What we know:
Strand content: 15-25%
Number of domains: 1
Largest sheet: 8 strands, parallel, barrel
Order of helices and strands: EHHEHEHEHEHEHHEHEHH
Strand order of the largest sheet: 1-2-3-4-5-6-7-8
Helix content: 40-55%
CATH superfamily: Aldolase class I
CATH topology: TIM Barrel
CATH class: Alpha Beta
Oligomer: single chain
Number of helices: 11
Amino acid sequence: MKLKLGVNIDHVATLRQARYAQMPEAHNIEPSLLGAALAAEAGGADSITIHLREDRRHIQDADVAEVRSGIATKLNLEMGNAEEIVVIAERTKPDFVCLVPEKREEITTEGGLAVADQMETLKKTVARMQAVGTQVSMFIDPDPRHIDASAELGAEMVELHTGAFANAAPESDARAAELQRLIDGAARAHAAGLQVNAGHGITTENLRELFAVPHMVELNIGHHIVSRAVFIGLKAAVEEMRTAMAEY
C-alpha cells in the first residue's frame, strides 16, 4: 500500500498573518491559503492539514471553511480539546480531526497529547466528532499508556510524534533509541486496531530512517515542505517528498 502524504499548510498562513493580521479587509492579502492547498494537491498530497489554534495565530475560522469547500482531497483538522474549536469542527465536518496538546507559548506543537490523563474529556470529544462522520486521530508520543488509551477511547488513528527522533543528532544513541520507540509504538498501535500515522520534523533527509517503522499509513508534513517551497515551489516540494516516500 502506498504511503500517504498529508501536507500541513499552517505556515503559509503564518507568512500571510505576519503582514496582514491587522488588515483583514485589505484587498491584496497574500499568500492564498486555498491556493497553497490546491498546489499541494497538484503535487500529489492525499490530504490537507490545518491547525485552528485557540489564539488564531495562523489559521483563521474563515480558512477552515474555505479549505473544506475548496479542496478535492481530504481535510485533516488539527485541534486542541477546547469547546470553541470542537463546535467549529462539528460544523465543518472534516474528514479527520487530530487532537493535539496546545500551549500558547509554543511556536508549534511540541510533544504528544497525554491521552491517558484526560480520558473523560477526550471521550466526549471523540463521540461528538464521530457523530458527525469525522474520524479521530490522537497526536501522541510512542508511549504504551497513550497508545492503549487512544484505542480504549475508540479513536480510529494515532499520529506518532516523530519530533524527538528528528531533533536528535543523526547516528546518535538518542536517535536510535527514539527510532526504536517509534517502531515499538507502531507495532503496539497496529495490534490494537489503530491506523498508524506519523509526523513532526520529518524531512527528505531523515525520512529513510523512518522506513524502519512498520504499519505506517500516512505522514503529515508541513514545515519542511513549506521551507523547500521557498526555493523550488510548493507543488515541486510536495512532488519531491512523494518521490522520497515511494520507497516505503
